[in-house]
Amino acid sequence: MRRNPRLAAICAWGAVLLALGLPVALAATSPWLSYRNPAYVIASFAGIGALALMLLQPLLAAGYLPGPGLARARCWHRWLGAGIVLGTALHVGGLFLTSPDDTLDALLLVAPTPFSVYGVTAMWAILATGLLVLLRRRLGLTLPVWRMAHNALALVAVLATIIHALQIEGTMEPLSKWALCVGVLAASLFTLFDLRLRRPLLRWRGRQPNP
Amino acid sequence: MIPATYARRSFLVAASVAGLAMTQAPLGLLVPARANGFAPTRTMRGGSNNYRPNAPLVSALGSGFIVSGMVRQAGNGAPLKGVRIQIWAATTLGGEREPRNHGSVLTAADGSFRLEMEQIVPNFGQPHAHLAYDDGRFQTVFLRPVLGSPKDRSVQTEFVLAPA
User: Distance between CA atoms of A24 and A30, rounded to whole angstroms?
Assistant: First the structure.
């Protein structure tokens, strides 16, 4: 059977964009949106959007998606990373405008809601990831150390965001929310396994003298 | 015949229960009030969020959702009549800071109170109501009951108030 690379690329991108776009689209049909003020609606979708972008981040970092090539995919990865930081800022800012009491409780880790502590953990991990990228040169970290720090922070951000999102009763449709969260987790874990374990081991074995 | 392992397990269970009883018994004697009295309700975390003091007395804030409960005196549990309870929540009218979502009711002779309002909707990740006693005669209490489901049409709660 002949493989059509263009068709394969369209299918891969279509599947990923559907996986992250459908949950956002379904959230946009939530009846609860009409009872919320604009700041709260923006905060809601900034959070959902940041979660959705987390599906693309590992795929772009590893260059799994066909088409752009690794260099351009990494460039997109940086822009989407900035998007996640911006989404987080809009999420927290919008929530603060909607209810300063509830938002401060969450930030000070005294909120009664169990998901708040995960949201705040994710926020700090996302901000730290962004700062680490900006200060990459100034900190003078070697590439392996920087990679480990970036991956560790990103994994904390992903895990905390997923737990945060799953516990919330909000505008996201539950089934598509679960699917997106499982997808984000699977993409993140597989990429970490592939880039940081499988490929280094293969390279290491490749350097071994043949028996 | 009981296998040795079962015998040992039941001995361990019996010993733990006995041990627990021995630690509990003297403590139970030291705090006799707990057994027969009504302990004061404690303010819940986040209960006072978006509180607007002195919400007006209302007969209803809308229709379709019932917030109800009882107000009792700490210790003897006697129902308290004519106590003002302030209630607010995010509903289909808007968020918790929406003035139309704030109202007060007085308890009846049997200590019960009831307020009909618009449907409560999830707010900040949980569908919940806020209730306050804040009138000085008793210690202030803020409650934040969470609905079991956003589809619930009512929520019940109880205040046990201690003298200020």
Answer: 10
